[in-house]
Amino acid sequence: MSTRHTHTPLVFGSLAGYQRAWLRPDIIAGLTVWAVLVPEALAYASIAGVPPVVGLYAAVPALVLYAAAGSSRHLVVGPMSATAALSAALIAPFAGGDDSRFVALSVGLAVVTGLVGLLAGFVRLGFIASFISEPVLKGFIVGLALTIIIGQVPKLLGVEKGEGNFFVQAAAVVRELGSVDGLTVFVGLLSLALVLAVKRWLPLVPGSLLVVLLGITAVALFGLDDRGIDIVGHIDAGLPSVGLPEGVRAEDYLDLIGPAVGVLLIGFAEGLGAAKTYAAKAGYTVDANRELTGLGAANLGAGLCSGMVVNGSLSKTAVNGGAGAKTQVSGLTVAVLTVLTLLFLTGLFEKLPEATLSAVVIAAVVELVDFSSLAALYRVWTKRLGSIYGVAARADFAAAIAAMFGVLIFDTLPGLIIGIAVSMLLLLYRVSKPHVAELAKSGSRWVDIGAHPELQENSDVTPSGGVIVVRVEAGLFFANADHVRDRIDDLVTDDTSMIILDAETSPFIDVSGAQMLEQLRDSLARRNIVFRVARDVGQFRDVLAGTPGGGVKVDVYPSVAEAMADRNDRRSS
User: Fold this and answer.
1) Is-contact 415 406, C-beta < 8 A?
2) What is the CA radius of gyration of the chain?
3) Cα distances (Å, whole numbers) of residue 165 to 136, 143, 187, 516
4) Which of 209, 390, 448, 478 is placed for a possible disulfide with 385 were both Cys, Cβ 3.0 to 4.6 Å?
């Protein structure tokens, strides 16, 4: 009986097999996401240092092109806080204080990020997400969220914003506390409280849009702009111009390649995490390489339509999934509604108080300040764990903290690089010192005595006759060979007559590891101690036999029991 395989279409794959019954929930979800996206896109554009309308320009092509090229049925792509803040930080040195050049280069960054994403998807670099560990990403996002919040506080208080890292900006806010504008503080804090209250107690109501509309109404009714409240001001109505940004030279695009890689890396990691979360809930899979392609297409489209960088949004994807979305028809609905907003509703948002917009930004990112996750990593670190598990826990916490303080002190992209570098260094340290367990038999299994201290005094389960059974919980190779040899040497006592290495948990070995075993055999033999290997697996066995010089001459047995039973010092097959 043959099985017929169906292939997901390369374009608009999430719409394959579309059912009419899905149309209503998709449209409702689109309306709900639109209500959240419009005020947040305006806010994130301000984080990126560009006019608010640029956020709307970016959203429309990003939603359409991701729906065409991406693999997730639920992911919502648009301007986001992380990449917006990173864009602002990366573009500032190139712009030289010229506002128009800053905007043009921000658009150019979206174009280059799109091209890099398309190239990365084409050459199947989706695996790069694995190099950003969850603790690094968590620490990075916490640091980034804190930086965004402190950058918005001056607008919330009506004071001048300081320049520099998180701590410099925080100090500037403290210095300006004596000159805050009372009305601005009232509007800002009330807006923030309302957004958070609606999010907490009325989660189905689009709190951001509600507070934005209330802020606009208050300005119109009470003339708050004439009483010192800063407002967004003029927003260009109509659709954006299409094409490359004016004033960006070929050498500028080349200079933006490095920054674009950083933006893509962060946007891809965040978007892929959101896509996988909702794919798992709905019972389908996402393709990391198609996610790169989709993100690249979305950024290229955003840049060619005068927009800023975009990426997948966890919060808006959650809104989308919670509202019942089935496919990317919801995203296409958001795109249509955003076009209508650009054509007919931009004048409405011109009276939006800056303090209210700042409150929307803070409310959107405050939930990302997840100190509880960092505290959980710290608690794991402080638990009494075995050596390898303790090292792993310390590595995770250290990498998260390094990423967070890297962002707070050195800015966004350096913070991410610091976190990844610390994570990689600690990973190398971890693999160079694998756990070497002394084993005891419990029932039919050989278990780690260190993890089962109750077995240490049980003579019925521990090996007898001076036999020590050990297990290396890693492959054996050049980076850890010396550590393994030293650890086995440390286990030897005056009564030891035999060391048996249970190789079942060592899936591979290199020439350095094999030669170490031979040297260990010789050094133990000089102390009248027999060394044997048991339960070697495929690649391990092949390297032992194929090591230069005719193979490694150690006794190899099919099982630990046979290695213990055979008192002859000879090699067995």
Assistant:
1) yes
2) 30
3) 19, 11, 27, 50
4) 390
The percentage of residues in the chain with a pLDDT greater than 90, rounded to a whole number, is 36
For residue 479, give both structure tokens: 């980076």
Contact call for residues 556 and 533 (beta carbons, < 8 A):
yes
CB 205 within 8 A of CB 322: no
Average pLDDT, the chain: 84
3-state helix, strand, coil in the chain (%, to 5): 65, 5, 30
d(CA 320, CA 291): 18
Residues in contact with 94: Cβ distance below 8 Å, sequence separation at least 6, in sequence order: 101, 105, 252, 255, 256
Residue 535 and residue 560 in contact, taking contact as beta carbons nearer than 8 Å: yes
DSSP string, 16-44: TT--GGGHHHHHHHHHHHHHHHHHHHHHH
Tokens at 194, concatenated:
């309302």
HEC sequence for 231-283:
ECCCCCCCCCCCCCCCCCCHHHHHHCHHHHHHHHHHHHHHHHHHHHHHHHHHC
Would you say how long the chain is, in residues?
A: 573
Distance CA(256)–CA(479), nearest Å, equals: 37
Q: What is the DSSP letter of 160?
A: P
Nearest to 166 by CA among 45, 46, 263, 85: 85
212-257 pLDDT per residue, tens: 889 999 999 999 988 888 888 888 889 999 999 998 999 999 999 9
In the predicted model, is pLDDT for residue 568 greater than 60? no
Contact 103, 279 (CB under 8 A): no
| The pLDDT value given to residue 454 | 65
> Which residues, other chains included, contact 413 with Cβ-Cβ below 8 Å and sequence gap of 6+?
86, 89, 90, 259, 262
Instruction: Quote the CA–CA distance of 153 and 343 in Å, as a whole number.
Output: 32
Paired residues of 531 in beta bridges: 499
pLDDT in tens, 428-462: 887 888 888 888 877 777 888 877 666 666 555 55
Q: pTM of the entire structure?
A: 0.73
Q: Please give the distance of CA 434 from its chain centroid, rounded to a whole number.
A: 26
d(CA 359, CA 198): 13
